[in-house]
């Protein structure tokens, strides 16, 4: 369809949804449905607020705007790249982040838990007040999104963020700078806790690679654009999770807490570690995919 046949935002929304469905695209990189992704692409391309497309549906577009929208919709279908990579941008709970193919497109239930207080006194009670958290570690930080959200949640905390990937840390550096957090977030390159020596933290958050080898091999095209190392957690997916559980006690304060996202492998993890009293923290969209453990229970 020619862009000249499409005049309004509503026209392009319908066109994008139809095109994406016909092509069998897979969604899940910051948006959860074909309509949400189509709306995100349109609003971001037009430099409009991405929270609600409805006020703009009947807006007529200029020729340049129609051309830009037709091009990015066609590119999404042709390349199967997630929209966040095409736009170099994504949002987590309204907070914008720069992303490209050097990092996984950020999507973590931990981000939601940080921003809505699920972990705190009005939720799971894992800390008394935000002021009680003076130090935070974000392991496997990727784009740095969780470190940034932690800095926004715990305004008095200093934050370390670690990743093995030099490329990922380059993206994280952009996001730390964009959010004015250079003085509060320190980026470290290394293998999990290795670059931190004997430092201890009130809160460790981590969304490590936790996908098994067979599942990674069967990924749809969209997920194959992401770095394999950001997904692959060994044969059953839990190689890094096991290492984190083994080493976390040496890096938590006496009242510290570990919060880790593991996907849908709860049964496997509980079978591997029957002695650990996992606290399962649910969100609006997840159940049994994030656990918390107190330092005293890991000792």
Description:
- By secondary structure, this protein is an alpha/beta fold.
- It is built from 12 helices and 9 strands.
- It has helices at residues 9-23, 34-45, 63-79, 83-87, 109-116, 145-153, 166-178, 213-217, 221-224, 239-247, 266-272, 295-298; strands at 90-92, 95-97, 135-139, 158-163, 185-189, 201-206, 252-261, 279-280, 290-294.
- Strands 5-4-3-6-7-9-8 form a 7-stranded mixed β-sheet.
- A hairpin with a 2-residue loop joins β1 (90-92) and β2 (95-97).
- The longest helix is centred in the first third of the chain and has 17 residues, at 63-79.
- The radius of gyration is 20 Å and the shape is globular.
- The model has no long low-confidence stretch (mean pLDDT 96).
In short:
The chain is α/β, with parallel strands linked by helices and 299 residues long.
Globular, elongated, flat, extended or rod-shaped: what is the shape? globular
Strand order of the largest sheet: 5-4-3-6-7-9-8
**Helix fraction bin:** 25-40%
Strand content: 15-25%
For the record, give the distance between the C-alpha atoms at the N and C termini, rounded to a whole number.
63 Å
What secondary-structure arrangement, pairings included, does this model have?
Blueprint: H1 9-23, H2 34-45, H3 63-79, H4 83-87, E1 90-92, E2 95-97, H5 109-116, E3 135-139, H6 145-153, E4 158-163, H7 166-178, E5 185-189, E6 201-206, H8 213-217, H9 221-224, H10 239-247, E7 252-261, H11 266-272, E8 279-280, E9 290-294, H12 295-298
Parallel strand pairs: 3-4, 3-6, 4-5, 6-7
Antiparallel strand pairs: 1-2, 7-9, 8-9
Helix pairs in contact: 1-2, 1-3, 2-3, 5-6
